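hey can u run this one w/ calcium ion bound, need the C-alpha cells asap thx
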Amino acid sequence: MKLLIVEDNPEIIEAVSFCFELRWPEVSVVSTETGNKGVELAETESPDLIILDLGLPDINGFEVLRQIRLFSDVPVIILTVRSENMDKIKGLEMGADDFVVKPFSHMELLARVKAVLRRSQMPELRGEEKPFNNGRIRIDFTSREITVNNNPVKLTPIEYNLLYQMVRNEGRVLTHRFLLEKVWGEEYVDATDYLKKYIQRLRQKLEDDAESPSLILTERGVGYKLIKIA
Ligand code: CA
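ok here u go:
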C-alpha cells in the first residue's frame, strides 16, 4: 500500500508520515511539495491513495486533481484550511473522494483514509445485481421492492431514483448538482428546491423520525449522503 502526499508544508508531510509509520507501518509514503511533481508522481509511483493540499506554490490542488483524473481513478483526499463549502463542492465535482480540514488529528486522517480505501474497493451495484441490505433498508433492484425494518414502502419513480443514487454511493456525500443531474437531468442542476423537497419525502418514508434523520444526512451547503451502516 502506497500513499502520495502533495503538500507544501514540510511540517504536515512530516506529521502525516510519522502518523503512518506509527499506526500503519505497512504503508509507504511518497511526498512532494509541488503540484506538478505531484501529477508526475501520481503517474510514475501508482499510489493507492493521494492526500492533496489545495494551496500549492505552483499549480493549485484543483488543477492537480483535474490532471490526475485524466489518467487515474486513484482515491484523492483533499486537505482544506477551513470547512469551505465552495471548495468542497468543487472538489467533489472534480472527483475528490473526501476532505480533511486542517488542523486534523492522526486518528481522523487514518479513519478517512481507511473509509476512502474501503469505498474504492466496493463493487458497484447494478440493476440486475443482488439486493441491497444495510440492516434497515432492503432494496430488490429487479422487482424494485423496498422494505424498511421489514415493512414494505412505496416510492415514486423520482424517490426511487434518488434513493438509488445514494445507495450506489453509500457513505459518500453527493452534491446537489450531482443528484439533480442524475435524477432530474442536466437542465435541472440548479433546482435545489426540488431536491430538498424529495429528500424530505424520502426521509418521511424511510426514517424513524424525519425531523432528526439518521439515514439520509445533510452536508450543509454541499449535498446529502446515505449513512453507511457497518
Ligand atoms: Ca498549502
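Residues 122-127 have pLDDT under 50 and may be disordered. anyway lmk if its weird
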